[in-house]
Structures are given as C-alpha cells and as structure tokens.
C-alpha cells in the first residue's frame, strides 16, 4: 500500500490501483457538494490538483484529457413534521402546499449550488456533470460512487470536533470507511488569524 498525503489529503491505494488510474485516458472523479465553503474548497482543490493548471493540455491529447467530474448533491428527504397545535396536544401535519413549497425551495437551492460548481469547472476547462439525489448523504454518496464506477471520490471535511463528530456523524468519515473506490478528504485551509494593530 502506498500512502499519499498533503494539503489535508488522506488516501491509500495499492500501487496497481494507482498505475491503473493513471493509465486510463479519462479518470472519473466524483465530488460531493453541499452548501458549505469546505465542499467548494474541496472542489477547487480537486480541479487544481487532479486536473492540473487551468488551460494545461495533457501531452498527446487535444484537450486536458484528465477526465470527468461528477458533482453530486444530496437533498434531505422531506419529513412530515408534527407540530403541537394547542394545549390539548393535537397534532398538525404539513399540508401538501407546504410540502410542495419545501420541495421547490430544495430544488432551487440544488440548482443554484450546482450552477455555481459547474461555473467553477468551466473556468478550469474541466468537463463536469451533475447529479442530485435524495436521502442520507452518507449512504447516497457511497452508493452513487459504486454504481457509477467512480475512480475517485473527493469530499470536504468540516473539521468537526470529537463531540460534534460523535453526535452528528461525519459524512467524510463515513465515506472513508464505506466507499469502494479511493477517497480524498480535503481539509479546510487553516484559518487566518488577524491581529488588530
């Protein structure tokens, strides 16, 4: 096993897997995105480090030839919440119009997020496609990577502390243990401490 580390990256692969990935004409990379700045940092890191410098051409190819990026965003499924309606403990379920409004807002949010990500890819001259899924992000990302036979999964890390990670769970941690392809977890850049003078 060869360990590759750098810029907050943790990935392990066998030498044969690395040679197989590099020998392919086109590498299939999936980048998981959410509303966080960390996921967009991971996308930019992947484009810069896996697909080279903007405008660079891989020798012997007409374009960059590095591969395709699949941008995946997972929406949380709609839950029919129960709201207490009065002191008697009566329950209120969301009406179909409320449900439709929430779903429409989710779709608009996903479209805006993926449009921003597609523009970043376009600016770097990297081919990209989008995928919107509904469900638990941890499971859906791993399933999509496996079903689409991805060569590599890139996820951002929010840098949760031990307590938050234990209570909330970490998508990147879960994917690192369950996804079938190699994974790169991109840690956020160190925070700049500004001192007042």
TrEMBL record:
UniProt-listed Pfam families: Usp
Cross-referenced SUPFAM superfamilies: Adenine nucleotide alpha hydrolases-like
Bilayer-spanning residue ranges: none
Domain (UspA) ranges: 28-187
Record InterPro entries: Rossmann-like_a/b/a_fold, Universal_stress_UspA, UspA
Region (Disordered): 1-21
Protein name per Swiss-Prot or TrEMBL: UspA domain-containing protein
Natural source organism: Citrus sinensis (Sweet orange)
